[in-house]
Structures are given as C-alpha cells and as structure tokens.
Specification:
213 residues, alpha/beta, two-stranded antiparallel sheet
Length: 213
C-alpha cells in the first residue's frame, strides 16, 4: 500500500491556506485542524477554500480534517460543511467526545476515531496518536489492525508533539510490527515548520525501509 505523509495546518502563525501553501510541494496531505466550528472558523475557510482546492490542482495536495473537539453539535456542522465542499478529503479524524456514538452510527464509514491519553473508544477505523499512547492509556493491540492513520511525533521526557526522533520510530516498529505496511496515512503532528521538515526526512527514510523489506 502506498504511504501518504502529511502534516498539520499549524506550522506557523497563519491561516489554513498559508500553512498548506508552505508545504504543498513537500507532503501528500495537510490535516486541517478544526477544533471548533463557529462563524469565524467558517468565514476563514469560506474565503480560502478555492485557494486550498487550487493547491490540489497544482500540486496534488490532499486533506484530512480533524473535526471539532468541543461538542458534538459542532462536529455535525463541520462535517456537513466539508462533505459538500470541493476539497479532496481522504479522512476525517474524530475524538471520542460525548455523543460520538450517534454521530458514528450516521457517518462512520469515512471516520477515524482517535485514541486519547485518558480515553479510548474503538471503532472500525482508528487514528493511532503516538503521544497519547506512550504517555497515557495504552491502545489495545487487538485493534491495531483497525488503524488507518497515525499521528506521528517525537515523545521524550513526558512531552509529545516534539520533532520525530529515531527512538520513537523504533517504539512504533515494535508496537505495530509488519502491520505498519497496511497503514496508509502518516501525519507528522508537530507545530513548527523546521521541526516538521526535519521530521519529514526521517519519516520518509523510516517508511522506505518498510517498503523494501
């Protein structure tokens, strides 16, 4: 399976488009961080959505959407907005917030549920957050086969979202074993452009090792 490497829409203080444009030639997708859904957030995306789509047409850049984490009503609103948008969205990531079961019963087929440090709800598709697993509640190995996306970062001295390092990649290798080959989406979840670019080189090398095994 061809691996896709992406990163977040917050690498420097700027808008969704400004961040996506910065890395459009470096990564396969950008994770649009939509932690709430209000008039201000929608207005920003309304203004930028054609430009975000242009990055797809020019560079082949795709998107994932991290849906709101505050309340399920905002999850519904944001999801409705993006499903009728022009954007090429390859995955939606959702936290197990109150009301998530109802939402998944209606929209579960293209939804990937993320493990949190303090809570895990298992779903047919899962996003495995490396920092949440290493620093919090452990992911049940029986559900590793459900993982279709990894939120990747360096973890050291009880801190996550650090620049990816070899030590963390070794831990991931031990956790997943050969099932790494089945995971399509690899999102470098750091919030600094220099950390992302240095991480990107290491992650490409790591995934190449698995592709030639």
């Amino acid at each position: 399976m061809k691996k896709m490497i992406g990163t977040t829409s917050w690498l420097f203080p700027g808008t969704y488009y400004e961040n996506a444009r910065l890395v459009a030639q470096n990564v396969d997708f950008v994770e649009l961080l939509v932690y709430t859904w209000d008039e201000e957030t929608q207005n920003i995306i309304d203004v930028e959505i054609d430009k975000l789509n242009n990055l797809t047409e020019k560079y082949g850049l795709l998107y994932t959407v991290h849906l709101p984490t505050d309340k399920i009503e905002n999850v519904f609103s944001a999801y409705r907005y993006f499903t009728i948008s022009k954007l090429k969205i390859v995955n939606y990531v959702l936290h197990p917030i109150e009301g998530v079961e109802v939402f998944l019963s209606l929209n579960g087929s293209n939804m990937s549920l993320e493990n949190l440090k303090e809570k895990i709800v298992y779903h047919e598709k899962m996003t495995f957050d490396v920092g949440h697993h290493l620093l919090g509640k452990k992911f049940d190995t029986g559900f590793l086969k459900n993982v279709n996306e990894i939120h990747l970062m360096g973890v050291s001295q009880q801190k996550d979202h650090l620049r990816v390092n070899e030590e963390t990649l070794i831990k991931i290798s031990k956790i997943f074993g050969d099932s790494i080959e089945k995971i399509r989406l690899w999102c470098i979840e750091v919030f600094d452009i220099n950390d992302m670019l240095e991480s990107l080189s290491l992650v490409k090398s790591f995934l190449n090792r698995w592709e030639i095994k």
